[in-house]
Design brief:
Blueprint: E1 5-6, H1 12-21, H2 27-37, H3 51-60, E2 61-62, E3 67-73, E4 80-85, E5 91-99, E6 102-106, E7 110-111, E8 129-130, H4 133-147, E9 151-156, H5 166-176, E10 189-193, H6 197-206, E11 211-215, H7 221-227, H8 230-233, H9 236-250, E12 254-260, H10 268-278, E13 283-289, H11 303-315, E14 320-322, H12 336-349
Helix pairs in contact: 1-2, 4-5, 6-9, 10-11
Length: about 350
């Protein structure tokens, strides 16, 4: 028996080949692609296709669509957080945030994450899998559809390491930016990585117009090793070379994410070393007040320390901003809602 095709993961040219295989003219692919972009959940909703063709599609393909397990809306700033359930029983998080320049959605690329960053709630042992292109796209589609908020910007900074799911993420980027699809341009998309150096070089070759955000979080190997295990494999010197090479290849400014952790990476020594690392580089540093994860010994820096740290960077001509905290009253930071849901599930199974 032929395995059913995930039709939403197909690029338009692949969809054309698929419908031709089913004995249909190529223009049917465009019709199907438009229906999928509207967030239909069954082939029966595709009313401009014949019933006979819809029956063939049902036999050969399936349409992914997530289930809203939980939805939380911040009373403070209108941030909306979704816990989406997937067909295999897994769950992922998606967050819609309101900004002056438009609405942004922060999406997950894996169910769980095995990178093991000490400050993140997404780390899961043995419960991680890659999301398909369709499952990544669904987060944008259904968050927009349910919230009624038009999505103009996408941040791949939710659960999972995007470059660890490289092929599926690249396919998603092609789907979501397609002119006949959601048509969200690459310049409105930011991809975050903890520093998988070989994949940074792969991404550079594609010369996409997206923003690469690198989760740096410490300027010294001895600190970064303790909070980001990936640093043992790709230390800071190797990562920074890849970043400079990426800029030289693409001409695209890199954004460096830096979570401010009390008594770990928020002192003057770290600020000065960060300035040295970035000297002469066209970049931006995004200082992030740490969202405390329950059970973690890591605590957020004080506002005063964040201000002092930022001033040092600005004095050394490093473009720096402090990220505005959103959704603090709804567990909006990465992995927290999923972690709670998994804990409740395990408790119920005992």
């Amino acid at each position: 028996m032929t395995e059913k095709q995930c039709i939403k993961s197909l690029l338009p040219e692949e969809l054309e080949a698929f419908v031709k295989e089913l004995g249909q003219p190529s223009y049917r692919a465009g019709q199907i692609f438009q229906w999928l972009t509207q967030g239909v959940t069954s082939f029966d909703e595709m009313t401009n296709l014949s019933k006979e063709f819809r029956t063939k599609l049902e036999a050969r393909a399936f349409i992914t669509h997530p289930e809203i397990i939980r939805k939380q809306v911040s009373a403070k700033d209108g941030t909306v957080k979704y816990l989406f359930g997937l067909a295999d029983g897994n769950c992922i998080e998606t967050v819609v945030m309101k900004y002056e320049h438009g609405n942004s959605v922060c999406i997950s690329t894996q169910a769980g994450c095995h990178m093991g960053c000490a400050f993140c709630a997404s780390f899961e042992r043995g419960e991680t899998r890659d999301l398909t292109p369709a499952e990544i796209l669904d987060q944008v589609l259904f968050a927009e559809k349910d919230s009624g908020m038009k999505i103009s910007n996408i941040v791949l900074m939710g659960t999972g390491e995007p470059l660890d799911n490289y092929e599926n993420v690249i396919r998603f980027l092609k789907l979501v930016s397609h002119p006949k699809g959601m048509n969200i341009g690459m310049r409105h998309i930011s991809l975050s990585t903890c520093g998988l150096v070989p994949r940074i070089y792969d991404l550079a070759k594609l010369d996409l117009q997206l923003t690469l955000s690198v989760s740096l979080h410490a300027p010294f190997d001895e600190i970064r090793n303790t909070i980001m295990p990936v640093n043992h494999k790709y230390p800071i010197a190797q990562l920074m070379k890849a970043c400079r090479d990426y800029f030289n290849e693409t001409g695209r400014r890199i954004s460096f994410e830096y979570a401010m952790i009390a008594n770990v990476n928020d002192n003057e020594r770290c600020a000065l070393e960060l300035c040295r690392l970035l000297r002469g580089m066209i970049c931006h540093v995004n200082l992030i007040p740490l969202n405390h994860v329950e059970g973690s010994p890591l605590l957020p820096s004080s506002k005063e320390n964040i201000r002092k740290f930022q001033n040092i960077l600005l004095q050394h001509k490093v473009n720096t901003t402090v990220r505005r905290s959103l959704g603090g009253d709804i567990d909006a930071s990465c992995g927290q809602l999923r972690r709670k849901a998994l804990a409740e599930k395990r408790k119920n199974e005992e």
